[in-house]
Amino acid sequence: MVAGMTQSHLRISKAVIPAAGLGTRFLPATKATPKEMLPVVDKPAIQYVVEEAVSAGLDDVLMITGRNKRPLEDHFDRNYELESALQKKGDAGRLAKVQESSDLATMHYVRQGDPKGLGHAVLCAAPHVGNEPFAVLLGDDLIDPRDPLLKRMIEVQEQRGGSVIALMEVAPEQIHLYGCAAVETTEDSDVVKIGDLVEKPDPADAPSNYAIIGRYVLDPRIFDVLRKTEPGRGGEIQITDALQLLAQDEKVGGPVHGVVFKGRRYDTGDRGDYLRAIVRLACEREDLGPDFRTWLRSYVTEEM
Ligand code: UTP
What we know:
This protein is an alpha/beta fold. It has helices spanning 45-55, 70-75, 80-89, 92-103, 118-123, 126-129, 150-160, 222-228, 239-248, 250-253, 271-284, 289-303, and strands spanning 14-18, 39-40, 43-44, 60-65, 106-111, 134-137, 141-143, 163-169, 179-185, 191-199, 210-218, 256-260, 265-267.
């Protein structure tokens, strides 16, 4: 440990990516394929998430996987057969694309067994993470690479200690789909202090319209809390319930702050948002965008 640093002020280097959920909103596509492998334009959703972790300086990535999750491991591994076929053809461009994902980060995997909820998935990371603060990136939550959020969250954690969650303002009628935070402002306009958290509240009981989105920087003391957290909403062990305990009593594991995100974010586990992500990212791509936008414009004006 660096002299003068407390455990919760160690430099963050590990990212945990839970990807063991059942993906029921996307059936039948997710019957035998993890939803995190569904392509967003031409890259699986999970690759964007790993790239985000790496660009925030985290190149030790632990993925929490489950049944049917083999393709996730294969995607971040070498594929010698494909590589040698592309080499023989002299197709350097595609070869680079194949190699990109296996060269990204140091990947580790652990199986969750039964998907007993996000809190339980995070707890599976405890032996790998040890006693350092760490980041959690949900495998089906895509943050636009041009709107860096995680770097800012890490900075806030390094300044204030404890845990940091990501918040986004949503319409009041949407709040029942998310964890929701009661907040106090701080001297930083994009940072709030969390006083309380509620998982998927009825709009009438919601303390705010700040929704929790899928990025966290957590104090390792959350593991002790998670070990004692009973199944909550939906019979699942909820990360929100453990964070609520931390927010209500700083002595347990430091304060909880929120970074308010105003950038572009897509829930690729939701069919509508998944389609929006593809259309938007395809429109903005230099190679595909010009043709696709022309087609889309004529489709919208002539056929809708
Ligand atoms: P979701 O609730 O969005 O995932 O969890 P889900 O259960 O797969 O989706 P639906 O509602 O059935 O369609 C958010 C993230 O947490 C992971 C999921 O893989 C997803 O990335 N997760 C969830 C786990 O790793 N384990 C769990 O037990 C639950």
